[in-house]
Design brief:
Blueprint lengths: L10 H17 L22 E8 L8 E5 L7 E5 L5 H12 L7 E16 L4 E15 L5 E16 L6 H23 L9 E8 L8 E3 L22 E2 L3 E11 L2 E13 L4 E2 L6 H26 L8 H27 L5 H17 L4
Parallel strand pairs: 1-4, 2-4, 7-11
Antiparallel strand pairs: 2-3, 4-5, 5-6, 8-11, 9-12, 10-11
Helix pairs in contact: 4-5, 4-6
């Protein structure tokens, strides 16, 4: 009789074969990042002059930011794309909110995100080389829809990793992004005292121009009234006895000191002698007074201009436009007042009206402490 011997594989051997096959199958699946998540960190920089108000999308392309390599040793490398979680703009904005203090009493700076790129290339011996590139533009916010360009930042880094070490990608990218924040913090610190774009306020002062040596132009002074010798122009054919052509101008000088624009305006109430004329038979005190009042009106317009500027809320980015508008308003006021004066006095013929205008002008000059 022949005995049939039945043998069986031990259970432990079957499990060993199963795990070996499973491990072999796992090794053929390369590691991949489904998305890049920036890790929040408390940065060493503490901005004292600004805060990041927003991150805006200025990207030329909205394709995924990363072209990465995945590889299992002994197998050909594969490339794939992935992105920052929720997109680069929102991801960076969230990182800044968690990592930088936000003091809205400081100057608001906007980051224009122009580029975030990670590109990897397979190397020998299961190695991967990565290139990170980031470009920002920085702006100072001036109201809801207005920004002033400040500076650009361009940062880059190169790293080399083992094909299986995908955890090294995010820290390199984060470092380049943080370097951009360090850059603008340093830039603002260096520029805040001498860059007019970063000025906090405008302080204005005034003076009246006076020639050291009088030439053809007479600059208004209550100590220097007109005299007939000032009328050097040749009289034209005219029904009037005399005429002057005073004008109003100003010089502007601006200096930046400790973040404050020191604006100085020098007013020029001017009368050219060569443009003033009088007929030889008209040199009376009455006629000279009439012409002097034309010069006084220019001075009144200059003082009104000063008062308008002093009462305006001048801001660093708009003060020049406001000064120009106020000057044009003053010049228009001066011209209208000159015309009204001549019309109501009939160019000095109506003595009663002339006396009324004399009193009116003297009263305002006195109130302005000019007379």
């Amino acid at each position: 009789m022949i005995k049939k011997v039945i043998t069986s594989k031990p259970a432990c051997l079957s499990l060993l074969i199963f795990f070996a096959l499973a491990f072999s199958a796992f090794q053929t699946v390369p590691q991949r990042l489904s998305s890049i998540i920036l890790t929040n960190e408390q940065l060493i920089i503490k901005p004292v002059r600004f805060y990041i108000d927003d991150v805006e999308d200025e990207l030329n392309s909205h394709e995924p930011v990363a072209l990465l390599v995945s590889q299992v040793k002994g197998l050909p490398p594969q490339t794939y794309t992935t992105d920052l979680k929720d997109g680069p703009v929102l991801s960076f904005k969230r990182f800044i909110a968690a990592s930088l203090p936000r003091n809205t009493a400081l100057s608001p700076i906007v980051i224009g995100l122009k580029k975030i790129s990670i590109k990897e290339m397979a190397q020998a011996n299961n190695r991967v080389e990565g290139h990170v590139a980031v470009i920002f533009s920085f702006y100072l916010r001036k109201g809801d829809d207005d920004k002033v360009y400040l500076a650009d930042y361009s940062g880059s880094a190169v790293y080399n990793r083992d094909a299986g070490q995908i955890q090294y990608i995010e820290p390199v990218l984060r470092k380049v992004l943080v370097n951009g924040l360090i850059y603008i913090n340093t830039w603002v610190g260096q520029q805040s005292g001498n860059n007019i774009k970063l000025a906090k306020k405008v302080e204005v002062s005034f003076s009246d121009y006076a020639d050291q040596t009088e030439g053809d132009s007479i600059y208004y002074s209550n100590k220097r009234p007109l005299i007939w010798a000032d009328f050097r122009g040749i009289p034209p054919v005219s029904k009037y006895s005399a005429e002057v052509f005073p004008v109003l101008g100003y010089d502007q000088r601006a200096e930046l000191a400790n973040g404050v624009i020191k604006l100085h305006l020098t007013l020029k109430a001017c009368l050219p002698k060569s443009a003033a004329w009088v007929k030889s038979n008209s040199r009376s005190d009455y006629t000279l007074n009439h012409e002097q009042r034309h010069f006084d009106i220019v001075k009144l317009a200059a003082e009104h201009f000063k008062n308008e500027i002093a009462g305006s809320n001048l801001l660093p980015d708009t003060y020049e436009g406001i000064v120009n508008v106020k000057y044009l308003d003053a010049y228009r006021e001066m011209t209208d007042m000159q015309m009204q004066y001549d019309k109501e006095t009939s160019h000095g013929i109506d003595t009663a009206e002339q006396e009324r205008w004399n009193a009116k002008i003297d009263k305002e000059l006195k109130e302005l402490r000019i007379k």
